[in-house]
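Exercise 7. Given the encoded structure of a 281-residue chain, write a plausible sequence.
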């Protein structure tokens, strides 16, 4: 009788066929498998961008340093002459953290919102898995992607460290910066996951809200000193991501703890609300 069923009725449920079914016993592994291409693209794109901009360091001249507007000093563009100063501004202070922010926003929006929007969430929760466990497994996969991004960026920096005259920065300094980069992505990943889990809004709305908060906090961190309100920087995750200058000073443990704590709080609030929310609304 099964053989006589129309092809449409035998269509596999998304994410339950092929190798994906082999990972079905673990929601973490399944999410990791289903998003493997997305995580790989984000990691390679971020690593290549960091590699490209870091490679420009030997071409930086004193004239180029002097031509940087004073308004950009809040973004770290006040010391382009040293390798650490250049990377802290042009690489780890500009495009790379924004990519990490967008990764967190985009991937976090997929973790719960995309499934709820498509109706796939009901099918997932029909299995013996609690809402909290589902959210935590999904976020663990997001975290793995963030670590992959940081690892690829770290590998890119170490690969050109000597050739691009960046050897004044220690391996420990590069590693410390990679750790804070991963944590920055986790903060915004947790924010997007929490917003989606707590509100049930669409994936586009969750991404837009999270990315908007990220860009605004990035701008606030950069321009706060220009308006004489340095204390405002402490309200943004970017201050704890790069304010301790990991490339120069190594891993800032206090800043790492703040980023980790913010991630845990956001995730906890999102999980609590998700566990108590009526998914029909």
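Solution.
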């Amino acid at each position: 009788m099964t053989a006589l069923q129309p092809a449409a009725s035998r269509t596999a449920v998304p994410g339950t066929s092929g190798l994906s079914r082999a990972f079905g016993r673990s929601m973490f592994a399944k999410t990791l498998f289903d998003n493997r291409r997305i995580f790989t693209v984000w990691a390679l794109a971020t690593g290549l961008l960091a590699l490209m901009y870091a490679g420009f360091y030997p071409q930086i001249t004193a004239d180029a340093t002097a031509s940087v507007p004073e308004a950009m000093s809040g973004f770290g563009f006040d010391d382009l002459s040293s390798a650490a100063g250049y990377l802290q501004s042009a690489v780890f202070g500009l495009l790379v953290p924004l990519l990490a922010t967008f990764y967190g926003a985009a991937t976090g929006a997929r973790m719960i919102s995309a499934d709820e929007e498509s109706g796939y969430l009901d099918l997932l929760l029909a299995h013996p898995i609690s809402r909290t466990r589902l959210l935590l497994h999904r976020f663990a996969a997001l975290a793995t992607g963030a670590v992959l991004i940081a690892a690829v960026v770290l590998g890119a920096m170490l690969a050109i460290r000597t050739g691009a005259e960046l050897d004044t920065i220690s391996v420990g300094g590069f590693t410390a910066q990679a750790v804070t980069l991963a944590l920055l992505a986790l903060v915004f990943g947790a924010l997007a996951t929490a917003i989606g889990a707590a509100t049930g809004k669409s994936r586009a709305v969750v991404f837009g809200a999270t990315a908007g908060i990220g860009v605004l906090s990035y701008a606030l961190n950069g321009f706060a000193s220009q308006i004489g309100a340095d204390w405002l920087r402490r309200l943004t995750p970017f201050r704890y991501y790069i304010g301790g200058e990991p490339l120069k000073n190594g891993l800032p443990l206090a800043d790492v703890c703040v980023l980790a704590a913010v991630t845990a709080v956001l995730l906890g609030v999102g999980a609590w609300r998700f566990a108590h929310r009526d998914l029909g609304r």
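Remark. Residues 40 and 145 are 8 Å apart (CA to CA). Students should compare their own answers with the one above.
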